[in-house]
Automatic annotation (TrEMBL):
InterPro entries: cNMP-bd_dom, cNMP-bd_dom_sf, Env_Response_Regulators, HTH_CRP, RmlC-like_jellyroll, WH-like_DNA-bd_sf, WH_DNA-bd_sf. SMART domains: cNMP, HTH_CRP. Residues 24-116 form the Cyclic nucleotide-binding domain. This is Crp/Fnr family transcriptional regulator.
Length: 240
């Protein structure tokens, strides 16, 4: 997790693909429109496609036996989503819901397999994309398991700043330019809304963060990094 906003501007997870290989992906796809609140796919569906987001935003969620929703990832234009084991015929382990009106390019696994067989450079780029997904999952598990809910919350705030952050003033403060509710944060770290309220209140008392017009401003990024034992992950990993 980097501490310079200039170095942590959002990187799409398809940055590992060269321009020509991104064109190959889109040339072998079909377009689909998803209305806000609609689902791209459901947990348990057959994993037979990947989805390149052309516009809009999508969240990936996992439901517990008790019906609680855990937000795993939030993706935006330029990202590609789907299960990263395209040739094993598995079922999807998560649900994808459009946060806003979204346009996607749908790539069938049979088309993906054809490109991998035809183009060695595409196969290498695809392996890099799969590796990025694996590392992102590892860091999410670390956030949730190693340093408790305060560590998971601070890590999530840093990830949000890397994904949606903008310079706020010349003191290095960062505005998270998306309205993220306490319920969203609780779903991201597997905590109750009440515990998130308490932790955010503690951070505000320490002047590490504040709210303005419903959006979070981070004033002391280093304090958040200390709580979550930040490992200075590269920017394509340190994101929501």
């Amino acid at each position: 997790m980097n501490n310079s906003l200039e170095e942590t501007q959002p990187r799409h997870n398809t940055a590992c693909f060269s321009e020509i290989n991104q064109e190959r992906l889109l040339n072998h796809s079909t377009e689909r429109s998803i209305a806000a609140g609609s689902h791209l796919f459901w947990e348990g569906d057959l994993s037979d496609k990947l989805y390149f987001i052309k516009s809009g935003r999508v969240k990936l969620t996992k439901s517990t036996d008790e019906g609680k929703e855990l937000i795993l990832y939030m993706y935006q234009a330029g990202d590609m989503i789907g299960q990263a084991d395209p040739f094993s015929g598995t079922r999807l382990g998560f649900t994808a819901e459009a946060i806003e009106d979204t346009e996607v390019a749908v790539i069938e696994h049979k088309e993906l397999e054809l490109m991998i067989c035809q183009y060695c450079d595409f196969a290498i780029d695809f392996m890099k994309w799969m590796g990025t997904h694996h590392r992102l999952t590892q860091t999410k598990v670390r956030d949730l398991m190693l340093y408790g809910k305060p560590g998971a919350l601070c890590s999530t705030l840093i990830r949000l700043s890397n994904t949606y952050g903008e310079d706020y003033n010349d003191q290095g403060s960062i505005l998270i330019n998306k309205k993220i509710t306490h319920t969203d944060l609780s779903n991201m770290i597997g905590a109750t809304r009440e515990s998130v309220n308490r932790m955010l209140s503690d951070l505000r008392k320490k002047e590490s963060i504040e709210y303005e017009h419903g959006m979070i401003i981070i004033h002391d990024l280093e304090a958040l990094q200390e709580v979550c034992h930040c490992e200075m992950c590269p920017k394509e990993i340190c994101r929501v």
